Amino acid sequence: MSAVDMNMPILIVDDYKTMLRIIRNLLKQLGFNNVDEAADGSAALQKLRDKSYGLVISDWNMEPMSGLQLLKECRTDNQLQALPFIMITAESKSENVVAAKEAGVNNYIVKPFNAATLKSKLTAVLGAF
Questions:
Q1: Model confidence, pTM
Q2: Cα 89 to Cα 6, 39, 50, 57, 109, distances in angstroms
């Protein structure tokens, strides 16, 4: 019996349709099927305020609102500040990791990644499933 709710709503945020599809498929492989999408940070913020999510997986590089800005918005919002947040980036530069950590990110995934990587990051944030 896993403590993780496999039906919890997850919001994935990326401005590349292909990337959204890849993340959705990886989540599906892991057993998560309740997945919503947003194409940028501001659209994501709107969805987060309209519905209760169990997790956000967001790309870093987006216009007009980046993943880092989205994360900062979440962390200053009483309703969203405890929301588990995983950042995806193509950059593994340490200053990016530090900036995301300082902003309150729960975990960090560098592209490209596979289901095993995603599962280990999700397990670190949510617990075993």
A1: 0.95
A2: 25, 15, 26, 11, 6
Beta strands 10-13 and 35-38 are: parallel
Encoded tokens for 28: 């599906």
For the chain, the C-alpha Rg in angstroms (whole number) is 13
The domains of the chain, with CATH numbers, are 10-123 (3.40.50.2300)
- Residue environment code for 1-40, b if the CB has 16+ CB neighbours within 10 A, otherwise e: eeebeeeeebbbbbbeeeebebbbebbeebebeebebbbb
Query: In terms of Cα–Cα distance, which of 10, 104, 115, 19 is closest to 59?
Result: 19
pLDDT digits (tens, 9 = 90+) for 68-80: 999 999 999 999 9
